[in-house]
Design brief:
This is Integrase family protein. The structure is a single chain. This protein is an alpha+beta fold and 348 residues long. It folds into two domains: 113 residues, Orthogonal Bundle (DNA polymerase, domain 1); 141 residues, hpI Integrase, Chain A (Orthogonal Bundle), CATH 1.10.443. Helices cover 45% and strands 7% of the residues. It has 14 helices and seven strands. The strands form two sheets. It has a four-stranded mixed sheet. The protein has a three-stranded antiparallel sheet with strand order 1-2-5. The protein is globular. The protein starts with 25 loop residues before the first helix and ends with a helix.
């Protein structure tokens, strides 16, 4: 059942009854804002907001919104950082704060919104940067006992396909066209829910390059004939659902059950350690595909479409770094394109 904020333990601190707008407390404001978010947002998103809202209620709960000034909020922001919260987490907490104070301003509780003059915490530019695997590391990752072969098929397929982890573990054989060399992204698994992509651009046809097709063909020999699993898929409105029977491409090689993202992470961490590759999360497979493609001069527009982005902005921001050990000589390629070298000379 979808969690709602009034059912949480924090609801006990809310004022009882119909206080006037002028007397609206922070706790009441959070309750109003959370009720809207729980109705509109995905379960995973609203649950995340609830965790962040706890910080706000713990700090200001019974105080009136109108009595809290800009310096109070800036001090709160600084205190969260001092507690050890990351800049990203503090900014997420202030997503709740901005929502509550924005509602209060729109409802006439405030004559001015102090959040208009409070900026988010600046984050280290490297915090979300890609940390892809090199070709040498991919070779090391392929070393695995035969009992977990389907798990390594999944990882290496994604290094050459670029799906997000949530898309990868929700992929079904009915979404795959091996002859045409494509897969359709129709759903994702976020925490315990299957859902269709929230952005229409993420529901897409992905063109597969040769190594990705090879790993899919190998995987078909393992799971291609396995029976479908009935699942419930949350639709884009985050309220309605649809029943589907999915023959999952990738299943947990140990249990045979459909993957959960956290289970992939645990297995992958152990596998990286066993083959002597520096630890990274499984979503680095997606980064690896993008970085390898860009380092080979594949058009940025094509990479963006493959990843489900509407334009090239995110690709340039997160995946634009070329992998030094893998990058070819650009001058040599330009020389070939301009007719000064033959293909043989370029590869010699």
């Amino acid at each position: 059942m979808r969690p709602t904020f009034p059912d949480s333990p924090r609801a006990a601190v809310f004022s009882q009854g119909g206080a006037s707008n002028a007397k609206r407390t922070v706790a009441e404001g959070v309750q109003r804002w959370m009720e809207v978010q729980c109705a509109k947002k995905a379960t995973s998103t609203s649950r995340n907001y609830q965790y962040k809202a706890n910080h706000v209620v713990d700090k200001f709960g019974k105080r009136r919104i109108a009595d809290i000034n800009k310096s109070d909020l800036e001090l709160f922001q600084a205190q969260l950082l001092k507690k050890g919260l990351s800049p990203k987490t503090v900014n997420d907490v202030f997503t709740v704060v901005r929502g509550v104070w924005g509602d209060a301003y729109a409802d006439g509780v405030l004559r001015a919104n102090p959040l208009d003059r409070i900026k988010n915490i600046e984050r280290d530019s490297d915090e979300d940067s890609a940390d892809p695997f090199t070709r040498e590391e991919l070779e090391a990752l392929s070393k695995i006992k035969s009992a977990r072969q389907q798990d390594i098929n999944m990882i290496l397929f994604d290094c050459w396909a670029g799906l997000s982890l949530s898309e990868l573990i929700a992929l079904g054989w009915d979404d795959v066209d091996l002859e045409g060399g494509t897969v359709m992204i129709r759903r994702a698994r976020v925490e315990t829910e299957y859902k269709i992509p929230k952005e229409k651009s993420r529901a897409r046809r992905v063109e597969l390059i040769d190594p990705a097709i090879a790993y899919l063909r190998a995987q078909f020999e393992i799971t291609g004939a396995q029976p479908a699993v009935p699942i419930t898929v949350v639709q884009r409105d985050n309220n309605s659902t649809k029943r589907e029977n999915v023959r999952f491409v990738f299943r947990n090689g140990q249990s045979g059950e459909p993957w959960h993202a956290s289970s992939v992470g645990r297995w992958f961490a152990g596998h990286l350690k066993s083959v002597g590759v520096r630890h990274r999360g499984p979503n680095q497979c997606r980064h690896t595909f993008a970085s390898q493609a860009l380092s080979s001069y594949v058009p940025v527009e094509w990479v963006a479409r493959q990843l489900g982005h509407t334009d090239t902005t995110m690709v340039k921001k997160h995946y634009g770094r070329w992998i030094p050990g893998d990058t070819k000589s650009l001058a040599g390629l330009v020389s070939q394109m301009m007719g000064f070298r033959t293909t043989t000379e370029l590869t010699a």
